[in-house]
Amino acid sequence: MIKVLQVLKVPIACVVVGGAVLLAGCHAELPPIRQKGAWLVVENQTTSAWTNVSVTLNAYYRGTSPALAAGGRLEAPLANFVTGFGQRFNTAREHVSRVEVRATDASGQPVTLDWDEHAGPPLVQEGK
Question: Residue 107: left if φ>0, alpha if ψ -120 to 50, beta else—which one?
């Protein structure tokens, strides 16, 4: 009877491990540009670090970062994005309708990420 239990343990363990691998493989990857409450998230989903990262909201409000590591996330409050005249993004009056990300990768090639509410799916709300 003990031998029968040992034989049955292996297939059950394989099913559990196989199920975990299957679930991990089915995990939907989040888009590189998304919103988390009143914060904007830009994720570098490449294997190359980025430098001179510039993020523009609605063609007027801008934020910058000197670098974004490969696989790293840039998180910034929407209110920290400002125009050239110093006006801040006001979340009570405005919503994000366009996001443009510009950077340079480690090999010197330009990086371009864009999201537009009129040209694609809605901006993903992280954590919902």
Answer: alpha
Report d(CA 7, CA 23) in Å as an integer. Answer: 25
Asked if 43 and 72 count as a contact pair (C-beta separation under 8 A), the reply is: yes
Strands 50-57 and 61-68: antiparallel
In 3-state terms, what secondary structure has residue 3? helix
Residue 35: alpha-carbon gap to chain centroid: 9
Q: What is the pTM of this model?
A: 0.77
Phi-psi category of 119—alpha, beta or left, where left has phi over 0 and alpha has psi -120 to 50? alpha
User: Reduced to 3 DSSP states, what percent helix, strand and coil does the chain have, rounded to the nearest 5?
Assistant: 20, 40, 40
pLDDT at 23: 44
Q: What residue ranges define each of the domains in the chain, with the CATH number in brackets?
A: 33-116 (2.60.40.2890)
Q: In this predicted model, what pLDDT tens digit does every residue of 41-97 receive, in sequence order?
A: 999 999 999 999 999 999 999 999 999 999 999 999 999 999 999 999 999 999 999
